[in-house]
Amino acid sequence: MLFRIAWFIFVLVAFGPAFAQESQPIRVGVLRFGTVAWEIDTLRHEGLDRKHGIALVPVELASNEAAKVALQAGAVDMIVTDWPWVARQRSEGASFSFIPYSKAVGVLMISQDSGIKSLADLKGLRIGVAGGPLDKSWLLLRAYAQKEFDIDPVETMEPVFGAPPLLNEELERGRIDAVLTYWHYAARLEAEGARPLLTVEDMIHRLGMGGDVPMLGYAFRDDWAQHEQAALQGFVAASREAKMLLASSGEAWTRLAPQIGTDDPAVLASLRAGFRAGIPEHWGDAQRKACADLYAILASIGGERLVGKARVLDPKTFWPFVSY
Fold first, then answer.
1. Residues 8, 97: one domain?
2. How many Cα atoms occupy the beta-carbon half-sphere of 101 within 13 Å?
3. Domain endpoint, select from 161, 190, 206
4. pLDDT, mean of residues 13-36
């Protein structure tokens, strides 16, 4: 990672004047196999950054934790993460803000021939969970199960925490009975015959949250955004154009196939459908209010380990100058 950062600094020094004359550079931390890389690649390929007066510079990072460290260290200007993390940073004195990227987070998948019909049928069974015990999708599943069925999956099921590719394989081999995983891994499972039982979006709605509640978004420092307001607005416009293109164009997904790691039409179609379903349609006061309500639920389940000492969501978690 240090080598990549050093190389990036060299590029800025060597070509800084050209950037300054033509467009404002924005360093975006991406994971090689993450969905953000698909959006950023499409955006740059179509020249949408130049159209809006910016020059996106992707900085490849090894993991979500590495991305957070890079943002905190100032090695990148933006990363994609969830707004509860941004809220916790603010509660600890760091001034980060959030704008939406996607409302697609997780899906609870079961095998094609499974007899499971509802969450209650998973009592006593093994459920794979991508991430750890504080994964937001897992906490929301617990909250939903407690409200709807008066059960806590921690006590009534056997959770198996692990990496998404491993859990996909475990489900395919019948070693677990269901898997709660990130949407793009769920899309691959569905293309191979598995079935969705419940989405995180379903859980959020059934917990009483109305409208879009995007969990994932671009996080950045407040001081950077205040200094680069025009560049940030240009990025928002370019990002939304890239999303519309990925939602409507099969050719865009065919071009991305080598990066995604498959040219299987069924998998690409499933990924495209999942990406399209995750595009936030609206972002305003109603959605911010829903996030605050959801934060209270997450805080009650995850406790201080998740949210720190802040039991109420800081409204400044969300950058106030972006709405649609």
1. yes
2. 22
3. 206
4. 73
